[in-house]
């Protein structure tokens, strides 16, 4: 992780998110820069959720959850299934993206089980 992330306190991180200082869609960026911005945003989001004060984490979750769900849905749209159930992008019976997403989002239970 970049050293600048280690320097951010929870409140500074949340301020960056809510002030819109993270990934900006209004300027032109190349794919490499866009990837770096996305990875930075996700890393900072994770740090904020894991280390933030409860009130800040709640605000952060409310502000970001719909965006994360939208991003996953957009990825899945790009890997639509054919009538036979094969991925139209991967060209295989098992979509690699859908497999990775399902593994990452396995149901989590609150009792730790």
Folded structure, characterized:
The protein is mainly α. It has 2 domains: 3-77, no CATH class; 81-113, no CATH class. It is 60% helix and 0% strand. It is built from 5 helices and no strands. The chain has helices at 3-7, 10-18, 31-51, 54-77, 96-104. Helix 2 (10-18) crosses helix 3, helix 2 crosses helix 4 and helix 3 (31-51) runs antiparallel to helix 4. Mean pLDDT is 78; it is low at 1-11 and 18-24.
Question: How would you spell out the order of helices and strands?
Answer: HHHHH
Q: What is the average of the pLDDT values?
A: 78
Figure out the total of helices.
5
Global outline = extended
Q: What's the number of structural domains?
A: 2
Oligomer: single chain
Strand content: under 5%
Please give the alpha-carbon distance between the first and last residues: 30 Å
Helicity range of the residues?
Answer: 55-70%
Number of strands: 0
- Work out the radius of gyration: 17 Å
| Helical/strand content category | mainly alpha
Brief sketch in words of this structure:
With 113 residues, the chain is mainly alpha-helical. It contains 5 helices and no strands. It is extended and about 45 Å long.
Question: What are the salient characteristics of this protein?
Answer:
5 helices; mainly alpha; 2 domains; disordered N terminus; 0% strand
Give the helix/strand layout.
Layout: H1 3-7, H2 10-18, H3 31-51, H4 54-77, H5 96-104
Helix pairs in contact: 2-3, 2-4, 3-4
């Amino acid at each position: 992780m970049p050293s600048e992330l280690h320097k951010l306190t929870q409140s500074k991180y949340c301020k960056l998110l809510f002030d819109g200082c993270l990934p900006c869609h209004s300027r032109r960026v190349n794919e490499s820069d866009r990837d770096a911005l996305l990875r930075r945003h996700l890393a900072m989001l994770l740090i904020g959720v894991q280390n933030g004060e409860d009130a800040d984490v709640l605000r952060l979750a409310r502000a970001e959850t719909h965006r994360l769900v939208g991003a996953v849905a957009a990825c899945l749209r790009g890997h639509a299934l054919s009538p036979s159930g094969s991925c139209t992008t991967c060209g295989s019976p098992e979509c690699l993206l859908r497999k990775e997403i399902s593994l990452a989002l396995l149901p989590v239970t609150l009792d730790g089980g």
